[in-house]
Amino acid sequence: ALRLEAQRREVDQLLQPLRLAPRARQQVQALLQCEMERGLRQETHAQASTRMLPTYVRATPDGSERGDFLALDLGGTNFRVLLVKLRSREAGGICMVSEIYSIPPEVAQGPGSQLFDHIVECIVDFQTKQGLWGRTLPLGFTFSFPCQQKSLDQGILLNWTKGFTASGCEGKDVVELLREAVRRKNQFDLDVVAIVNDTVGTMMSCGYDDPNCEVGLIVGTGTNACYMEELRNVEAVPGAEGRMCINMEWGAFGDNGCLDEFFTHFDAQVDRVSLNPGKQRFEKLISGMYLGEIVRMVLVELVEKELLFQGRPCPALQTPGIFPTKFLSTIESDGLALRQASAVLQNLGLAASVEDALLVRKVCQVVSLRAGQLCGAALAAVAEKIRDNRGLAQLAVTVGVDGTLYKLHPHFSQHVQQTVKELAPRCTVTFLQSEDGSGKGAALVAAVACRIA
Ligand code: ADP
What we know:
This protein has 2 domains: 2-53 and 218-433, Hexokinase, domain 1 (3-Layer(aba) Sandwich); 67-196, Nucleotidyltransferase, domain 5 (2-Layer Sandwich). It is 42% helix and 19% strand. The protein has helices spanning 2-15, 22-40, 105-108, 112-129, 174-185, 198-207, 265-272, 283-286, 291-304, 326-332, 339-347, 354-389, 404-408, 412-423, 437-452; strands at 53-54, 67-74, 78-86, 94-102, 138-143, 147-151, 154-157, 191-196, 213-219, 223-230, 243-247, 395-402, 427-433. A 6-stranded mixed sheet has the order 1-11-10-9-12-13, sandwiched between helices. It has a 5-stranded mixed sheet with strand order 4-3-2-5-8, sandwiched between helices. A two-stranded antiparallel ribbon has the order 6-7. Strand 9 and strand 10 (223-230) form a beta hairpin. The protein is globular, with a radius of gyration of 23 Å. The site of adenosine-5'-diphosphate has 14 residues, from helix 10 and helix 13.
């Protein structure tokens, strides 16, 4: 019994750095608030870790948007082309048809001109299938990579992420690259109205149903958020009246060192072996691409310290990616019998006792709790900024959300919501899951642009 007690204490010590005290949650909120201000101001922009990019989206939908639109969605493994019909509620509301096209790795990583030629081929195929020849519909392009925008229909790619490396694109206007590919094809026209980040698409698609929706959140492979800022605070864009949606690029929060005290040596290991060391440090604490890896690092150390699997060596755990984030969902939704947790470990070739399964579940819980709390602390900073901007004693705001981790993990969303409640008590924050925000949202951005033009 004494030995067990000593082991328990050792485990707690090992997990301690992954637990965020209430004070730490407040600190993260305050740090992001500071980075947001710095990112918005011209003279401090270069040092801020959150880029706070203007999107030229000046209004959320009011439900009166009508018409037929094309939408493109590029940002993951699949590329989609959509036809979005915005009708009155009586006439059936929003109706969409879409087609998925794969982007083979050799195209995502080859010459940029080839990538855009491929995209144009897909659009041509879609238009043919949908009988759209002869109609040039306004097009919204969801392009989920960081872009510097000077207008709604222009976006200079700052850097590729998520496995894309197509050459000759960084530093170029992506809409122009698309138009050049269309000209090479020499047989049809595109009317590109807007380039849209996926966070913005998510906010807009939820905004169609809820006028309070002024924040967009993604927690999937990566994490990012956008919100409606007062134009007078956006120094990169002239004008003092009205609002503009800001793509925060919050995945990079902490890349300037401001979060260093919160990184554990587990996080440092995950960062070191990642495709982009030193970059997207906040994202690496929160999103689906990394949570499983953090858990794996903790398990490796528990085995080394002979606190797990009775110290038997577990070579399988040395393999990067062997513990994907969906395992956290499975293990954390497991009942008292711990059958799923045991099965997951069994499949990895790890014979687990009940105590082992319990400990693995505890590690998963600690890692996803921290992720949810960090995400919540960041959202609290955003909600408080909006409330403060408007001089309100109380703010009601809706967050449109997308991403598999947020949607499928059994507790992540509760952790986020609870933390927002705790840290932004003067804001009533509602969460609305978006369905197909990238497609619908791109069309809505185009539609709102047409409405207010
Ligand atoms: P994207 O962000 O690229 O649009 P998704 O929103 O589908 O894509 O998120 C993909 C991420 O979701 C992957 O990193 C994967 O690890 C994670 N994931 C997949 N299934 C689950 C699950 N059941 N629970 C938690 N995370 C999951």
